Amino acid sequence: MRIQIDVAMQYRFMRPNTIFLTIEAAKCEGQSVAYENLWLGDIPINRIAGDSGVGERIWAQVPWNELRINYNAQIDVNRQPVALEPLRAMPVHLIPGDVAPYLRPSRYCQSDKFGSFVEKRFGNLQGGQKVAAMRKWIETNLTYVPGSSDADTNVLETFAGRQGVCRDYAHLMCTMVRAAQIPARMVAAYSPDITPPDFHAIAEVWLDGAWHMVDATGMCSADSTAIIAVGRDAYDIAFLDSQAPAEMLYQSVFVTRT
């Protein structure tokens, strides 16, 4: 499936600034870039590899107080949805070194606080069956409420309040899976099936020796989703990180099937 991505943003800063930008679709397994163009104006940039080698991040030095960003791309997604239930979890002592960090608690995913709940609620299940049951529990028990959380909301608050947006759903998914001693990581993504249109956050889980997408909101599937970046939680995959205070003047994200 080919999807068209059109992103336009304008930000104002209190002073000349350095930003960390993560908006380009990754060149990775399951997807390829047919066309892309990123416009930042005539400013110095430095590209670095993304976490786990997925995608690229950009350091950009903004010498003035406003910045316009335009990103347009066509991405061919060739991965297929995979049923989770038959997949096996790997014994912890066999998990590879590059995957092991995604077993641990992180800033927004305090998985060490969820061991008792996960054992009581899902302890009778194994591997992919357990992950699928967690995904269904989150989709059933949380309500998608735009504006119900902010950049400081952590998974404990989401679990208590039973509401959130995609970021919160993905945090809870990663947290529960890690509490079950299965690696899980946060994924920034584009999909044409997101309502309202925006950057999207999902999870990936490590089963049967590979990463598999899991969207706890139920909005998108692997065959229509383009990965931007991966990380431990939202802190690692933010589309823009600014050293100086930033004011959003305009932002639009449109993703369509072509």
Description:
The strands form four sheets. The chain has a four-stranded antiparallel β-sheet, with no helix packed on it. Strands 4-5-2-13 form a four-stranded antiparallel β-sheet, with no helix packed on it. It has a four-stranded antiparallel β-sheet with strand order 11-10-9-12. The protein is 19% helix and 37% strand. The longest helix has 15 residues, at 127-141. With 258 residues, it is an alpha+beta fold. The protein has five helices and 14 strands. It folds into two domains: 2-78 and 239-257, Sandwich (Immunoglobulin-like); 92-236, C8orf32 fold (Roll).
Can you tag this structure with a few keywords?
single chain, 258 residues, alpha+beta, Immunoglobulin-like, C8orf32 fold, 2 domains, four-stranded antiparallel sheet, 5 helices, globular
* Secondary structure tally: strands: 14
Low confidence ranges? none
Note the gap between the termini: 8 Å
**Cα shape:** globular
Biggest β-sheet: count, sense, barrel? 4 strands, antiparallel
Structural category is alpha+beta
What value does the Rg take, in angstroms?
18 Å
The top level CATH class name of the largest domain: Alpha Beta
Stated plainly, the CATH topology of the largest domain is called: C8orf32 fold
Strand order of the largest sheet: 3-6-1-14
Helix content: 10-25%
Q: Please name the CATH architecture of the largest domain.
A: Roll
Order of helices and strands: EEEEEEHHEHEHEEEEHEE
Look at the structure and give the mean pLDDT.
96
Strand content: 35-45%
Per DSSP, the total helix count is: 5
How many domain regions?
Answer: 2
